[in-house]
Amino acid sequence: MLQPLAGPATTEHPEFKIVEGDLTRWPVGRAAMEHAYSIETRMAEDIAATVAALGEDASVHVYDMTGLGWTMPQVLHFGRAATRRYREQRAAEAGMQAVAEALGEAA
Questions:
Q1: Which candidate, 16, 26, 42, 29, places its Cα nearest to that of 69?
Q2: What pTM was estimated for this model as a whole?
């Protein structure tokens, strides 16, 4: 059964990403995930990786996600929220880059 949306700030959950030093890992395989926050977060990461691999003009399809191990019900239920999360992260990164450039600190 899919779990309600909650994040690491509110509770610990066995599906949350584990950070060990410089490495991160997901303790549960994609198809076995049930927690909404974890699914959306991991799927957004997969969308970002797919766009990075295919180029900025890439279209990410349902089959890209199922090819990574997501189930069709997961993609249909969480895909829009994961896409929204990906876009919000991209916008935040672009904003930070613009501020850095304005301050002359761009890498």
A1: 29
A2: 0.77
Q: Using an 8 Å Cβ cutoff, are 68 and 26 in contact?
A: no
Say how many C-beta atoms besides its own lie within 10 A of residue 35's C-beta: 21
Query: In sequence order, which residues have a C-beta less than 8 Å from that of residue 18 and are 6 or more positions away?
Result: 24, 25, 26, 27
Dihedrals phi, psi of 16, to nearest 5 degrees = -65, 150
Measured over the CA atoms of residue 67, residue 87, residue 26 and residue 28, the dihedral's sign is: negative
CA distance 29 to 3: 16
Amino acid at position 66, single letter: T
pLDDT along the chain (107 residues), means of 10: 47 77 89 93 95 90 96 96 92 81 71
Retrieve residue 87's tokens.
């876009």
Amino acid at 93: E
How far apart, in whole angstroms, are the C-alpha atoms of residue 86 and residue 64? 15
